[in-house]
Write a structure and sequence with these properties.
The structure is a single chain. By secondary structure, the chain is of the alpha+beta class. Helix content is about 15%, strand content about 30%. Strands 55, 56, 57, 58, 59, 60, 61, 62, 63, 64, 65, 66, 67 and 68 form a 14-stranded antiparallel β-sheet that branches. Helix 1 packs across helix 2, helix 2 packs across helix 3 and helix 10 runs parallel beside helix 11.
Length: about 1400
């Protein structure tokens, strides 16, 4: 009878609820007198049904729930906003009534471990393992101890698996079983994954079976949840919460079935009150048993680009709540302007109170009902920041029994009242809502720039009177909230926060730790957020799943916009012609998809940082996506919805959020979208390995006023997902395949701007610079003096928290001398968003360059006078912007650098000359300079081209080093003193002449004789000897510079100097399979070119009028015999061994027609291990390539050679420094021994004769034109790298920790006139912009034809058209650095 009555009651209630939830409540509890009878009947019916369910699922050895997509949870509580559950407001900051059963997030608790057993599948579970009486020590299975939260694969059980898109189990939805068969996706095969060809593959020995299933047991008592007496437990309710379990879990307590849940990234909450209270004492011991399967039907929805790791990876805890408690809270705000023009915020707070006691099966119990009636009331308090302790609003409201949260009923109607056992989408019974509306006058609005938070305190009271007085609270909820609005609208239909358009400087972030996988600590979450803020990010996409709730709290606090993304990706359906969106069109999968969106929203709805909801990632498009988007818009009309996979053609997305769309196509989207939606890339600039090329082109678009709807994007991604490899001598990170896993997608998980330990790669600085909130521009006023224009790129905050530090710098021609002025600074001040301010800095520059310690000025007369007469080559301003102390609370009020740049302009050199100032501190290191004859009439800088061309700005052509007297430097900063200075200079002319010496007469730079000694043995080649004992050797057969020893007999070269066109492939070089740059280089054997046999490669040798020796050689390089395509390079080189001890090397090459684009064009050699330090004048301080130059700036930088190498997780070409004027390699810490290398931007000419005073100063008697030019464009395109690892070693090694230096400790140098860019639009296609490709047949625009060695250029018209050429000078250093 009760069974039939219960069935009838259930059918009637479902019908009434379809019409109206309120009609159901009225009929069954108010009008119909038999409501209680039906309630009891329904209770008994469901109890009987639950008993039958337990018979099939009680043992856990079944696939029933885990392979049924219609079942997403059993007995699971409805999702709600997370809160602090406390007993009174006095305990707000001290008590949460929560007991952890694991360690804190990401910190496995080793003091209270769980018993653990791993079996091959749910069918292999012991039948009674979950029983309270089960003894693991007497079991025939061997149980282990594990610390949680963690993944069992990282604790010695099973193996981690990394795939990008391929499902690592048999493709047979909804079954997910790893039986050795799977099908590779075209995407992963295109990324170079080893193909399985759909054939069975033997599982790893550590894999226990087709669906590894972990069994966890733990004992606990409830007394830690109580500071009260035993009797108070009767007035308590207990809830068991799993914050994150992968992939599905089934729970038992004391042997009784509790429930089931899937969706590995959202909490699973079960009420366990009835089971807990069966044992009367709070000191009684309870047994918790949890079964976790590695795969379930939900795994088809969790095919994100991440490691497949299993287990309880987030914390598990039990909460104690009163019998009537605050079940959910919803906070929202709107903005308006009142009549007086002031801004007001309308705040709506809705509180759901629940008073229903439930059984373990989640069914309403009529015998223990604690209904929240109209007698209950809530008190809502909004406080200023907790440090100010000021109440903004205090309101009270009675609870309306039977009501729901705003918009919940309307939104749920989209799902046609579908239910799943134990989880209802209809409104809760025996619950009520109180909605409070208030106005906050002149609120402080939350934004990423000003993340101001209010404190929301809600207390539940038994009466309205108690609520008004604040007495006797039953339950409290405390949360920090932000007042802000988000919309897509306005005249241009832009994404606006608080009514102002914002540009998204975003990044994709996975939860990841190299030690604990997705089990991340609170400290690491905060550190991630702070690091992103320091890199000028303002937004994060939770890719591709809801992340730990604490992450959102941190983003609220520090100020990061968040796109909250549902845990949905089915990219692996890209097989057998199946559409990726297959599941979204299947009705049996609809509930599985929709609950992942609805539950995400309910958990995260109150966070100010969440500005938009994402329906998931790479899951195609189907009608379920439209349903989910419709639900979100009804439930939350104040945020936008985005979804990429449907493209711009669907209405499931409020913005166009493409992936990896090139800038020019983004422009097309902005212009062609008929809905005029904002374009915000959900992924762009794939940062895999040495990447980030052409990132500046995106930011040019984002800041282009012609395309206002191009509003930024999210870089992919934050950190490399490399797991620690045990047993390596230094930190090593593993990727796909390193753990014996198959299938796998190799290193495609390593695509972050930082390594797994958050150590930044150089590309991160490029991102930070382009995203800087401030822009500084160098201008020149009507007097031609420098002016800095500071612009505010922010949307809400001024620049009062920033300061600018400026350092004027000068570099001098030929001799490697430079001066850095004393820094001066100014504060940006209250420059409003979108505004700018001019700062005149000429007076500060005067003071800076004239203030300093003159003891640093060179004492040696010869070198000092050489410095004075040679004049300035380049003047620049070094500019750094940093935060002021005590302005960024999220960074503990510490200052940090926001951006760093340098302004290089020939006009700065002119201005320094015009100001009449001298260096305050000259830092010099001088090689054996070429012999230079200075005209007697030349003084100071008058001979420099810059000073001559700007003679109108000087006084009679006088030296800016005015008032020069013997033994000291005296100068005037006032131009009015120029005449007097000139008179003083004339009076002291004799003293000046003592210092204007000929360099050739300096003892330390005396010219040497040089001769060629030709060996009888041709294989030994030609030996060139200097009179000081230095020796060099040219191979006659190969035409290379084989060896070079200095006057002490120490080697300067340890391998022959040779041309090079290859590089160790970067991840981007390898993208595109057979069409990749790397594959084409390998196809022609570019990495192993061989010399065509010849007896004598020397074309000519002669002595120049200066006494220098010139040798010209030629040879041919060609592909090895086993190359797929045969190419050749006809090479010629010219060596000039001059009387100063320097060697000039010029080369040119002609490539065959089939030659592909090259990696580089330059020279390579190696040096002894003793060369351990490098100092250079160029762009730095970090690695740079021609399509990634925004973040580097001109300066003189010094580093160890070891630190010049960038340790990418996957070894590849790295460490290049751009636009070097000179490079000095030093032996250890010695400042008196080394090798200087510089590009010869003017080329080498055997017949060159000086035609100007500049040429006279910058040429030597050999006719070799060598100067450090003031035109930065002349060296643009040049680059060098030095590393303890050879190019071949980098190319052949799979992991950074496996790299080993050469046995003889050689340092490997590349000095290139051209280097191919990095690319970075993606990593699976050749995508280097044409301007940065090294064509073997087309000269680079930056490498002018005039720089070609003139001897080679004159050989023939064919050779003169060669695109591959360059020239460098190498000189031993014998003086102080």
């Amino acid at each position: 009878f009760f069974f039939l009555m219960g069935l009838y009651a259930r059918l009637v209630r479902c019908f009434l609820n379809t019409l109206s939830p309120y009609l159901e409540y009225i009929c069954f509890y108010l009008l119909f007198p038999g409501g209680t009878i039906f309630d009891v009947a329904e209770f008994l019916y469901i109890t009987l049904f639950d008993y039958m369910v337990r018979q099939t699922r009680g043992s856990g050895n079944s696939y029933a729930d885990s392979e049924e997509p219609r079942i997403v949870g059993r007995n699971r509580q409805r999702a709600h906003a997370l809160y602090s559950s406390i007993d009174s407001t006095e305990e707000t900051h001290s008590s949460t009534r929560r007991m952890l059963l694991t360690g804190q997030p990401g910190i496995p608790d080793k003091t209270d471990e769980w018993d653990f057993l791993l079996v091959g599948s749910p069918l292999e579970c012991p039948t009674d393992w979950m029983e309270d009486s089960f003894d693991v020590t007497n079991s025939h299975n061997v149980w282990d101890k594990v610390s949680l939260p963690n993944h069992w694969q990282l604790q010695g059980h099973d193996v981690p698996i990394y795939t990008n898109t391929t499902y690592p189990f048999q493709f047979n939805p909804p079954k997910a079983r790893r039986n050795g068969q799977w099908i590779d996706t075209a995407c992963d095969l295109g990324l170079g994954s080893p193909a399985s060809s759909s054939r069975p593959v033997k599982l790893h020995p550590k894999e226990p079976g087709e669906n590894a299933t972990g069994l966890f047991r733990r004992r606990f008592t409830l007394h830690n949840l109580h500071n009260l007496s035993e009797g108070d437990s009767a007035n308590s309710r207990y809830f068991l919460v799993f914050a994150g379990v992968d992939s599905c879990l089934t729970v038992w307590l004391d042997g009784q079935y509790v429930g089931y849940s899937q969706d590995s990234c959202l909490p699973a909450e079960f009420e366990i009150t009835s089971i807990c209270t069966e044992k009367s004492s709070i000191y009684a011991e309870h047994t918790l048993a949890v079964q976790v399967s590695r795969w379930c039907d939900g795994s088809y929805l969790e095919d994100q680009d991440k490691w497949w790791l299993s287990g309880i990876y987030r914390e598990v805890y039990i909460e104690r709540r009163p019998v009537v408690f605050i079940s959910d809270v919803e906070f929202s705000s709107t903005l308006s302007v009142n009549d007086s023009g002031a801004l007001n915020a309308g705040v709506i707070v809705s509180v759901l109170a629940q008073g229903v006691h439930t059984t373990s099966s989640g069914v309403v119990s009529p015998f223990r009902r604690y209904a929240a009636s109209a007698a209950h009331a809530v008190r809502v308090e909004i406080w200023e920041d907790s440090s100010q302790d000021k109440a903004v609003s205090i309101l009270t409201k009675e609870i309306v029994s039977g009501s729901e949260l705003p918009n919940r009923v309307a939104a749920d109607s989209v799902y046609a009242n579908r239910t799943t056992f134990g989880e209802k989408t209809s409104p809760l019974l025996n619950a009520g809502v109180a909605t409070v509306r208030c106005t906050v006058n002149n609120p402080t609005l939350w934004s990423a720039e000003v993340p101001y938070l209010y404190k929301l305190v809600i207390t539940l009271h038994s009466t309205l009177q108690n609520a008004s007085s604040g007495k006797c609270p039953l339950h409290s909820h405390v949360q920090k909230v932000g007042i802000r609005t988000v919309c897509v609208g306005g005249p241009d239909n832009l994404l606006c926060v608080n009514g102002s358009p914002v540009t998204i400087a975003g990044i994709n972030r996975h939860e990841f730790s190299p030690l604990t996988g997705r089990a991340v600590t609170k400290e690491s979450m905060r550190e991630d957020a702070i690091l992103l803020k320091k890199l000028n990010f303002n937004a994060v996409r939770s890719s591709h799943y809801p992340q730990h709730s604490y992450w959102l709290e941190v983003c609220d606090e520090v100020g990061l916009y968040v796109i909250d993304e549902a845990n949905i990706e089915s990219h692996g359906f890209q097989v057998l012609g199946q559409p990726v969106g297959y599941l979204s069109n299947r009705p049996e999968w609809e509930l599985a998809l929709t609950t992942r969106v609805t539950r995400m929203y309910e958990r995260d709805k109150n966070h100010a940082c969440v500005i938009g909801w994402s329906l998931g990632n790479e899951s195609g498009f189907g009608k379920t996506h439209l349903t989910m988007a419709h639900w979100l818009r009804l439930r939350d009309p104040l945020r936008f919805v985005q979804y990429e996979s449907g493209g711009a053609r669907t209405t499931a997305t409020d913005i166009i959020c493409p992936m990896y769309l090139r800038p020019r196509w983004c422009e097309e989207q902005c212009m062609r979208d008929t809905a005029k939606r904002p374009v915000i890339l959900c992924e762009y600039a794939h940062a895999m390995g040495n990447s980030g090329g052409s990132l500046a082109s995106y930011w040019q678009l984002f800041r282009d006023p012609r395309f206002p709807r191009a509003q930024g994007g999210f870089i992919w991604d934050f950190v490399d997902q490399g797991l620690f490899l045990p047993g390596s001598s230094r930190p090593g990170y593993g990727y796909g395949g390193d753990f014996g896993d198959f299938p796998h997608t190799k290193q495609f998980c390593c695509n972050g701007i930082a390594n797994p330990l958050r150590e930044l790669y150089p590309g991160a600085y490029e991102v930070a610079h382009l995203q800087s909130p401030v822009e500084i521009t160098l201008l020149f006023d009507h007097s031609h003096y420098p002016v800095l224009l500071v612009s505010n790129r922010r949307a809400f905050a001024d620049l009062s928290d920033l300061r600018v530090v400026v350092r004027p710098c000068i570099h001098f021609t030929t001799a490697c001398n430079y001066t850095i002025g004393s820094p001066f600074e100014f504060r940006c001040g209250n420059i409003a968003p979108g505004c700018f301010r001019r700062f005149e800095v000429v007076n500060e520059i005067k003071v800076s360059l004239n203030f300093g310690n003159h003891d640093g000025f060179e004492k040696d007369e010869g070198k000092r006078n050489a410095l004075l007469v040679l004049g300035p080559s380049e003047g620049w301003l070094d500019v750094s912007v940093s935060t002021l102390p005590n302005t960024q609370s999220w960074n503990n009020c510490e200052s940090f650098e926001v951006m760093h740049t340098a302004f290089v302009s020939p006009r700065l050199t002119t201005i320094y000359n015009r100001l009449g100032v001298c260096p305050s501190t000259v830092l010099s290191f001088t090689p054996q300079l070429p012999s230079v004859k200075l005209p007697h009439t030349t003084r100071g800088w008058a001979a420099s081209s810059t000073a001559t061309s700007n003679s109108a700005h000087t006084s009679g052509g006088n030296s800016p080093f005015q008032n020069l007297i013997k033994g000291d430097l005296r100068f005037s900063v006032d131009e009015r003193d120029n005449d007097a200075a000139h008179r003083n200079a004339d009076e002291n002319e004799e003293e000046q002449e003592d210092y204007l010496v000929e360099v050739s007469e300096s003892k330390s730079m005396r010219a040497m004789t040089v001769q060629v000694v030709e060996q009888v043995d041709v294989s030994r080649g030609l030996f060139i000897r200097w009179s000081d004992g230095s020796v060099a050797n040219i191979g006659k057969a190969c035409g290379r510079l084989l060896t070079w020893q200095d006057k002490h007999g120490d080697d300067l070269l340890t391998s022959p100097m040779d041309v090079c066109f290859f590089r160790a492939g970067t991840d981007n070089d390898r993208g595109g399979c057979a069409m990749s740059y790397y594959a084409r280089w390998k196809e022609v054997g570019l990495d192993r070119l061989v010399r065509r046999s010849q007896k004598d490669s020397v074309l000519s040798q002669r002595r120049l009028p200066s006494g220098a020796i010139e040798i010209v050689t030629s040879w041919t390089l060609e592909s090895p015999r086993d190359a797929d395509i045969h190419v050749w390079f006809k090479c010629e080189a010219r060596y000039v061994f001059d009387t100063s001890g320097a060697v000039d090397v010029a080369f040119a090459a002609e490539a065959s027609p089939l030659t592909p684009p090259l990696a580089r064009c330059g020279l390579r050699w190696s040096m002894p291990e003793s060369f351990s330090q490098v100092k250079y004048f160029g762009l730095g301080p970090h690695e740079a390539y021609d399509d990634r130059l925004a973040s580097v700036y001109l300066g003189v930088f010094e580093n160890s050679i070891d630190d010049m190498h960038t340790h990418y997780t996957f070894p590849q070409d790295c460490g290049r420094r751009a636009d070097p004027r000179w490079v000095a390699f030093r032996r250890h810490q010695s400042s008196h021994d080394g090798l200087l290398v510089m590009p010869l931007v003017g080329g080498l000419s055997s017949s060159h004769s000086p035609s100007t005073e500049e040429d006279a100063i910058s040429s030597d008697n050999s006719g070799a034109h060598c100067s450090i030019t003031s035109d930065a464009r002349a060296v643009h395109g040049w680059g060098f790298s030095v590393s303890p690892y050879s190019m071949e070693s980098l190319d052949a090694t799979a992991h950074d920790h496996e790299l080993t230096p050469d046995r003889d400790g050689r340092m490997h140098v590349h000095f290139d006139s051209r280097t191919m860019g990095l690319g970075g639009y993606d990593s699976w296609s050749p995508n280097v912009d044409e301007a940065f490709v090294v064509s073997p047949h087309t000269p680079s625009p930056s490498l002018r034809q005039s720089t070609m060695p003139s001897y080679i250029a004159s050989k023939s018209s064919q050779v003169s058209r060669r695109a591959l050429h360059g020239a460098i000078r190498l000189a031993p250093m014998s003086h102080a650095l």
